[in-house]
Amino acid sequence: MGVVAYIGMTTVTEAGQYKLAPPESFQGLSSDPSNALAKDLAKSNDEITKEGATPAQAAYSTHLGDRMPQMVVMGGYGKILAPGTEVASAWAAFDRSGGAVKDKTDEPSGQLGGTTQCAVTTAGPAQMPVCIWADHSTIAIVLFTGQTSRTVPHPDFAALDQRLLALRAASEVKK
User: Which SS3 state, helix, strand or coil, does residue 166 take?
Assistant: First the structure.
């Protein structure tokens, strides 16, 4: 019982120590708050707020005004007690929206720990790689929209995870 109580106290103590603040630029891409796709996806912010988290979002494009950004980040921060459950809930939301999730993999989460998974998502004929991370403070869904196509061969999830870890290191900051 003492070990379980200690683990539970550690989790509660760690929860909510970081916030999600996507940078203005990332790996040569610029954040474009006017992007139409990002604005449309911002509707999910209501669900994040209902869960008690503060939403955060960014669309990264090669050129401001690009119709399709290379990468969209949406997520939030707060006290997350069960990161793995949050990641599973995010994948379930893709399924509920009429899409599908396939080829899901567990990926390294880096120094901040938590749970990280990548998969290919489908919406109609379009397929796109997506990675999700969650820890005790943040959750982020990263849509690699620049790789959207009708046929996505199995993506290099290890390379996408490295990009995700770099984004996470730039976005997840101590409160």
Answer: helix
User: Could you tell me the strand order of the sheet in which 126-134 lies?
Assistant: 25-26, 29-31, 54-61, 71-77, 138-143, 126-134, 115-123, 100-107
Match 């990675």 to its residue by tokens.
Answer: 131
Instruction: Tell me which of 44-58, 98-112, 114-128, 147-161 is least confident.
Output: 44-58
Q: Give which of 129, 167, 174 is closest to 151, Cα–Cα.
A: 129
Phi, psi dihedrals of residue 153, rounded to the nearest 5°: -65, 165
Q: Which tens digit of pLDDT belongs to each residue from 13-68?
A: 678 899 999 999 999 999 988 888 777 777 777 777 777 789 898 989 887 767 78
Residue 11's pLDDT band (cuts 50, 70, 90): low
Pairing of strands 71-77, 138-143: antiparallel
72: burial class by Cβ within 10 Å (0-12, 13-18, 19+)? buried
The model carries a pTM of: 0.87
47 contacts: CB under 8 Å, gap ≥ 6: 93
Residue type, 46: D
Query: Is 157:175 a contact under the CB 8 Å cutoff?
Result: no
Report which of 57, 37, 59, 58 is spatially closest to residue 48, judged by C-alpha positions: 57
